[in-house]
Automatic annotation (TrEMBL):
Keywords: DNA-binding, Transcription, Transcription regulation. InterPro entries: CheY-like_superfamily (IPR011006), OmpR/PhoB-type_DNA-bd (IPR001867), Sig_transdc_resp-reg_C-effctor (IPR016032), Sig_transdc_resp-reg_receiver (IPR001789), WalR-like (IPR039420), WH-like_DNA-bd_sf (IPR036388). SUPFAM superfamilies: C-terminal effector domain of the bipartite response regulators, CheY-like. This is Response regulator transcription factor. PANTHER family: REGULATOR OF RPOS, TRANSCRIPTIONAL REGULATORY PROTEIN TCTD. Residues 123-222 bind DNA. It comes from Mesorhizobium album. Gene3D superfamilies: 3.40.50.2300, Winged helix-like DNA-binding domain superfamily/Winged helix DNA-binding domain. The lineage of its organism: Bacteria, Pseudomonadati, Pseudomonadota, Alphaproteobacteria, Hyphomicrobiales. Residues 1-116 form the Response regulatory domain. Residues 123-222 form the OmpR/PhoB-type domain.
Amino acid sequence: MIVIVDERELVTEGYSSLFDREGVATAGFAPNEFGEWVSSAADTDLRSVRAFLIGDCREGAISPRQIRDRTGAPVIALSEQHSLEHTLRLFESGVDDVVRKPVHIREILARITAIRRRAHEEAAYTEVGSMRIFMDGRDPEIDGEPLPLPRRERRILEYLASNRGRRVTKTQVFNAIYGIFDEEVEENVVESHISKLRKKLRERLGHDPIDSKRFLGYRLVF
């Protein structure tokens, strides 16, 4: 999930729509709501956040260092001012990157992946047995051949790969894929997506690489 902060609701809704086309869940906040949320949100909710995008906010309204106190997710500023002084002020405030608007959603996703890779949080891809699972939106490969997947199934596989070695609950998967504030979709949809994903992986691999335990969740295995 990506969190977007901007004073203009139209902007947060616009970005949410664009990210949704890429299969990426979002949550939008006004600056005055965001500070309270990030300081009080549960750790499990914050672990679902892939990055924070900070748009048009009154100077000083958002503290990247406050975000850093709670999570290591990248903080990216979206800037409409093309001046060196403004860009330097943003970096001095503690953001990880400054992106000048307009910018394509895929470039933002690529920058997020690059920042996380440099921080050693994730590689450009994860290999699990004969699977190569990319973290930038590309379909996974099995024995070097692409396995086309619908965007939700692909994102679930990416999330499981990014948590390789750890078991994740259905709620954690749901929050990462649909966002922590999406009340229009039921959590049980995760089971449907994973069932379809397992079938496709089993057909190509000859075995089921997703281990599931009732009440404990899911993890990828060799």
